[in-house]
């Protein structure tokens, strides 16, 4: 996953994540496929149609139209059921990942495209624009469409057996979290030596989350003004109308102020595009929901802890590949706060899982593993102490507390014997 810094790239990415976009695209493709047969008609001899038996194309198109409409309706209802299941078992924020799932979008869009292809083909046949030669072209295209739909349908049926399951959603959240954090750690756009700059202030002008920052456009504006821009609020930050989100080194006119504000997209919800913390937040939310009294599923919380360790571990491994010195000199952005990242990941779990011995032990082991990485060590130790304090306050049995203290390897004095595992 590469962090997008151009507004148009971001808009295209947002559109491609919408089901209607792919459905419309496949629909246009299906209509064009049906109509192209009329253009190729002069190239096909009339006698060839009788040899192939292309008169059957009318019946095939009728069957295809009725069946694809039913399949598309069934697929949409199944997706809605999967959305509801994911909301009830994980978190409403994770349901958006199912909406943007490319496999589901391609399958449903293909069924809708095949339906419209057959519908346009039937209408064209009834109006007589094909003729005998056009029928053979339409027949050949219909065979290709049928084979394609059958292959997609078989894959879709296999995929439906996993759609909406907790482990499937966890896989997706973990994947996007790793991609976003890896992109953050390897990107030259976040300056680890960030310092606040004084200058003309740019206010947010709206209330909501910063979803996207157009760094390319900011750099262009700054170069044209022979100045510099300091971005003060990262994507994912919740801002008010009067909050200062950037500072510039020159006195801009009204047009430049409007252009600078347009570089920041502010919306009602957070977006994963430039917000590497969001994926970790989703994982923590799923764990907290699993630990709620109504669900009481510590096993899912334990699995989430393991996934968070993988996310942070794999992402940190990419830190050595950071491309230093490529940050545009006229644009400065704050680096990701690791303290905030660890707070997002472990505070909800240690708070909601404090009364569960199994979850508390897993949390201590996970933080011990992360502490082996130098950049994570201070945060891991702090959260290990907080988690141990919370758990000791919730656990009532002295034996449970003693077992938990033995698992807190990270907090043991140097040289003390440490248990395995």
Automatic annotation (TrEMBL):
Keyword vocabulary terms for this entry: Membrane, Transmembrane, Transmembrane helix
Entry annotated with the keyword Transmembrane helix: yes
InterPro entries: DUF2254_membrane
Residues spanning the membrane: 20-40, 60-87, 108-130, 136-157
Keyword check for Transmembrane: yes
A Pfam family of this chain: DUF2254
Protein name per Swiss-Prot or TrEMBL: DUF2254 domain-containing protein
Organism: Alsobacter ponti
Lineage: Bacteria, Pseudomonadati, Pseudomonadota, Alphaproteobacteria, Hyphomicrobiales
